[in-house]
Amino acid sequence: MVTKVMRSAGLEGWHLHTTSLASVGLCIGLWIRAKTFDEEERGSAERRALFVGLWPPMLWLMGDTLDREVRDRRR
Fold it and tell me: What is the distance between the alpha carbons of residues 66 and 4, in angstroms, rounded to a whole number?
């Protein structure tokens, strides 16, 4: 069901794989930026970086699911 919606939106597996890698970079950037805040704000900034750090595995697996669906249709 969800894969059909993603396909109808024009998404392919490589789109999600690229987004996954970009979110790794975003997480690292947010984490480095968090070190520039003072102690009161640093906790919030680090939590934001950790939250973004949860995205890459989910996006990568969604891309794999779309790729697998294409392979299964070809068989």
Answer: 9
